[in-house]
Amino acid sequence: MRQSDIDPATLLEAMSESILVTDTQLNAPGPFIIYVNSSFEKMTGWSRDEIIGKSPRILQGPKTDSSIFDDLQDKLLKGKLWSGRTINYRKDGSEFYMDWSITPAYNTSGEIYQYIAVQKEVTQIVLMELKLQEVMKEEKKRIQQIQKINNKLNKVVSQQNDTLELFKKYVPEAVIKKSLSDKNSNIREGEQLEVALLFCDIRGFTAIADRLRPDEVVVLLNTFYSVMSEVIIQHDGEINEFIGDEIFVTFGAPLPILKPALASVHCALAMIESMDEINTKLKQSLDVELDVGIGIHFGPVIAGNMGSRHKLEYSVTGSAVITAKRVEALTRDLLNSILITRAVFDKVNTQVRTKSWGKIPIKGRDEKIDVFQVLS
């Protein structure tokens, strides 16, 4: 069969797409339908006998977006293809989405004498797209909610970090870590530890403070504490307490460290060296100069969080603490000196140079104890 032998009507009837042919009267009430194929009948529910002679506007209804036809006449009159998508209505009034493509048909004289519309129902595709848009909209809302929650959470975490940083200024970090790691035990349970204990006291502090204003005393102590704290941290010491002009430091409590006695002596030497830095700063603002005395002892202590359920304080107690304090008091007439007990000496004598003071009576103890001065 030659191509010229194919009947155009037969070809249109065989197409699965809906075909609608109208005249060229584009202005209302036209155009008017002059042909539809069987696929059109199946899609719309309108039979040929019912639809021919009517306008395609019969397929429009309340939800039809008429704005898509705004450029239809302009394009068709120029011989261009027009296409669009909107809601249409079947004969029974049910809605469906349809893609339209309308193109001019020319006669042998090159004049437009018909318009051919190819229509395709895309209801399922549109519904899937709408569903996808709805899902994406919900997902966007969910992401926004998550972002809001994350922002709130980050704000809470930031506030908690600020609180923790402030808390760490009052409670040694090692105490916090130990309390958190011992969460399965009673937080107020004590333990016996072997630790090095260091007391550092400013010599003649009362006389110095008497000639300074209160705010100047605060500047003096803050300068002293700030520099000394850095030195203590560098040597694995834990500041147990600031007592007026005195610093009480533990090495090995609340967390164990390697060679606490040696660490305490090295720390004491570094503290003496740091006095030059402290005095340089104080001379610039207050015109004062400080000297200190340091006493160190090593022995058993009872350590733990002591207090009530309303207020707890990590503390170490025992005769070893008192001994360390008494040894520090022996430096009262010495400037920038370090004294240690036999318990410390036995652990560090190969590492530092010392001078023996012999046996010295200690307040509160019946027997005398061996005391050594650390020289370097």
What labels would you give this structure?
5-stranded antiparallel β-sheet; single chain; 376 residues; alpha+beta; Beta-Lactamase; 2 domains; Alpha-Beta Plaits; 12 helices; 8-stranded mixed β-sheet
Characterization of the model:
- The protein contains twelve helices and 13 strands.
- The protein folds into two domains: 3-121, Beta-Lactamase; 186-374, Nucleotide cyclase, GGDEF domain (Alpha-Beta Plaits), CATH 3.30.70.
- With 376 residues, the protein is α+β, with helices and mostly antiparallel strands.
- The model has no long low-confidence stretch (mean pLDDT 85).
- It starts with 7 loop residues before the first helix and ends with a strand.
- Helix 8 crosses helix 9 and helix 8 (214-234) runs antiparallel to helix 10 (275-285).
Number of E-type strands: 13
Write down the CATH class of the largest domain.
Alpha Beta
Number of domains: 2
Weakly predicted, low-confidence segments: none
Please state the average pLDDT score.
85
Distance between the termini: 117 Å
- Radius of gyration from the alpha-carbon trace, in angstroms: 47 Å
CATH topology of the largest domain: Alpha-Beta Plaits
Task: Please count the helical segments.
Answer: 12
